[in-house]
Amino acid sequence: MTTLLRGGTIITGAGQRRADLLLDGEKIAWVGRGPQAADREVDVSGCFLFPGFIDAHTHFDLDVANTTTADDFCTGSRAALRGGTTTVIDFACPNKGESLHHGLDLWHQKADGRTFCDYGFHMTIDDWNESIRAELPDMFAQGISSFKMYLTYPAMMIGDRDIYWALKELKRLGGIAGFHCENAGVIDGMIAERKAAGELSPASHPRTRPPYLEAEAVSRLLRIAQAADAPVVIVHLTNREALLEVDHARKRGQTVYVETCPQYLLLDESVYFNEDYSAAARYVCAPPLRDKAEQEHLWKGLRRGAIQTVSTDHCSFTLAQKDMGREDFTKIPGGLPGVETRGELLYSYGVAKRKISAAQMCRVLSENPARLYGLYPRKGVLRPGSDADIVVYDPGASHVIRAEDCVANVDYNPYEGFVTAGGIRQVWLRGQLSVENGKVLVEAPAGKYMARGKNSL
Ligand code: DUC
Ligand code: ZN
Ligand code: ZN
C-alpha cells in the first residue's frame, strides 16, 4: 500500500521546503515534487510535516515514593502518540542490588505489547561493581546504548568514584550517560531545616532545591566527566547558572549534551506559592520550576544550539496522588505529565513566537534525539528509507489545552488554558495513520521495541 502526502512543507533540521512524501508500507519511499502514482493521496497542503517527535525522557509505570505513576506504557504512549511523539525512550530502573538484566526484563514486561508508539529504554545505573560492569556489553547487544545516573535521590544516587568508573567503562564501550544533577546533601539539610521550622507546604519545595544546587551538581559532574574523558548528557537542565557550567566545560574541550523540558521553558515557580495546596502540589517536580527569568535563558540556549533536546520527563500523578503531601511537601510524588502537549507547546510558544525556528524545533524534538540515542536515520528525518513517522502540523488549527480533552491517565494538565498556535492534524506511525484531529485511531498497541545503536550527534 502506497500513500502520497501531497502539498505540505517538509521541515528538516536545516530548513524547510515544499515537497510531497510517498509512503510505501512502513517506510518513506520518495520525497520530492512532481507526479507520483500512489494507492491513495492525502492532501496536506498548508501543513508542516515534521519527522515523528522523539521523547527521550519518560517515566511510565514507575514506582515513586510509595506510589506508582498514573501513566503506564499503555496510557502514556497513547498520550504520547496523540501529541506527535512516535518514539519514547523510557528509563528502565533496576532496584538497588538487582542486576541490569533484571531491570531490563522488568521494563520489557511493562512495555512489550502494551505500547502505542515505538519505544526504547535507557538503563539506570544505581550501583557500580564487577557484576554490573560485566553486564554492560550485553546491554549494548540488546539495544541499550544510553544510561542514566542520579546525583540525588537516596534510592538511586551513586557516588563520585562510581560515576567516574562507570563513565570510563561506558566511554570504552561507546555508550553515553545522562545525569540528574542536584546536590543531594545540601538539599537534605535544607529540607531538615524547613521541617524543624514547621514549613511543610509546597512553597518549601523550590526553596529547598535552589538553582545553584543544580549548577553545583552540573559543575561537579562535568569535572568527573573531564577526569573520565567521557561525553555526558545533562538531563532536564533548568537554569542559566547550570548552563554556564556547561559552557565552561565545552570551552575546556569536553563533549556535553543538554536536555531541557517544556515545563522549564513555559512554567515558573510562582505556582508553588499558591495558598491552595492542590493548585501548588500538582506542579511539584525535581528539579523544581524556576524563576520566570530563567525561561529566556533556556530559549536562548536552544537558539544558540547550547541545548540539544527538549524532552518531557513525563512522570504523571493524579491529584489524589499529589494529595499525599498535604502534611509534608517531601511526600508529594514528584513529576509532571507532558507527553501529550510537548509538540504543540514548542510550536506555539517557540516557533510561532519566533523564539526558535521550525528547523530548530525539528532538531530538538526529532533529529538530535535520534542521533544522540542511536536511532538516526531510521528515525528523526523524513527521507527515503526512514520509518514513515510523520507529524502533520496545521498552523491554522489553534485550540485551548484542557485536561478533559487529553487521554493521559491524569486529571489535570499543567498547561490548562494555554492557547496553541495551530495543532497536530495527523500522526503517522510507520506508515499507519494513527491520530487524526486529536482522535487516536489505532485500537491495539502497535509500538515496536527499538534496539538502538551508538550516538552520532
Ligand atoms: N524528577 C521528577 O520530578 N520526577 C521523576 C524523576 C525526576 O527526576
Ligand atoms: Zn531527573
Ligand atoms: Zn526523569
Automatic annotation (TrEMBL):
Keywords: Hydrolase, Metal-binding. Carbamylation allows a single lysine to coordinate two divalent metal cations. The keyword Signal does not apply. SUPFAM superfamilies: Composite domain of metallo-dependent hydrolases (SSF51338), Metallo-dependent hydrolases (SSF51556). Its EC number is 3.5.2.2. It comes from Dysosmobacter welbionis. This is Dihydropyrimidinase. CDD domains: D-HYD (cd01314). One of its GO terms (cellular component) is cytosol. GO terms for molecular function: dihydropyrimidinase activity; metal ion binding. Its cofactor is Zn(2+). InterPro entries: Amidohydro-rel (IPR006680), Hydantoinase/dihydroPyrase (IPR011778), Metal-dep_hydrolase_composite (IPR011059), Metal_Hydrolase (IPR032466), Metallo-dep_Hydrolases_sf (IPR050378). The modification N6-carboxylysine is found at K148. Belongs to the metallo-dependent hydrolases superfamily. Hydantoinase/dihydropyrimidinase family. Residues 48-432 form the Amidohydrolase-related domain. It holds the Pfam family Amidohydro_1.
